Amino acid sequence: MNTKTMEGLVGARRNIDLVNTPMRVYHQAQRQGNMGAMEKAMGYVHEFADKAQDYKTKAYEGMKEEAKEAREQAQLEREKAIQKHKEEREKLEERIEENKDTDIVEVSEEGKVLLKDNTALDNADITETKTNPATQPVTYTKTGDISQVEQNTTISISL
Questions:
Q1: 35-100 vs 3-32: helix crossing angle, rounded to 10
Q2: Among 26, 80, 111, 151, which is disulfide-ready with 41 (CB 3.0 to 4.6 Å)?
Q3: What is the chain written as a DSSP string?
Q4: 25 near 37, Cβ under 8 Å?
Q5: How far apart are the first and last CA of the chain?
Q6: Which range (31-40, 50-59, 82-91, 139-148) has the least confidence?
Q7: Does the predicted TM-score (pTM) go above 0.70?
Q8: Using 50, 70 and 90 to split pLDDT, how confident is the model at 126?
Q9: Cβ atoms 62, 4 nearer than 8 A
Q10: Please, are residues 25 and 41 in contact by the beta-carbon 8 Å criterion?
Q11: Which residue from 139, 140, 159 is spatially nearest to 149, judged by alpha carbons?
Q12: Tens of pLDDT, residues 87-99
């Protein structure tokens, strides 16, 4: 909270509280019919009320300044966030640019020979593996054991 705002609020509150004393004196003088005391008390009431109004104005100006500072602070934070976002984007673009270049792998002559030997399969070396369709389906339990499923299971539903 701005010091000008605090001073205005405290001063206005104090002067409004101080108005109560001369008002009491005014009412007492009115009951007694003492016009001099009444006028003097009303002078103090007006003085304290005017000071309270001045402090109220001061508090209002302080709140305006505080709102202006808050807007400026928010603007600075937005600008910092935008700048940070731009920097992060630039770093990301740099990393993407660095990763664009592909790595080149060179295979030595020995590697080429080994690759050719391992991948060269004759038709005679190829064996076909066929599955036996007559095998029973297998189910595994939680412990990893095999449990056979009966195929003659019937389910009956009645409504």
A1: 160
A2: 26
A3: --HHHHHHHHHHHHHHHHHHHHHHHHHHHHHHT-HHHHHHHHHHHHHHHHHHHHHHHHHHHHHHHHHHHHHHHHHHHHHHHHHHHHHHHHHHHHHHHHHHSPP-----HHHHHHHHHHH---TTT-------TTSPPEEE-TTS-EEEPPS--------
A4: yes
A5: 75
A6: 139-148
A7: no
A8: low
A9: yes
A10: yes
A11: 139
A12: 999 999 888 887 7
68: which 2 tokens? 């202006």
Residue 147 has pLDDT above 60, yes or no: yes
Residue 9 has pLDDT above 70, yes or no: yes
69 band by pLDDT with thresholds 50, 70 and 90: very high
Beta-bridged to residue 109, according to DSSP, are none
| 117 HSE (CA, 13 A, CB side) | 6
Backbone angles phi, psi at 138, to 5 degrees: -115, 140
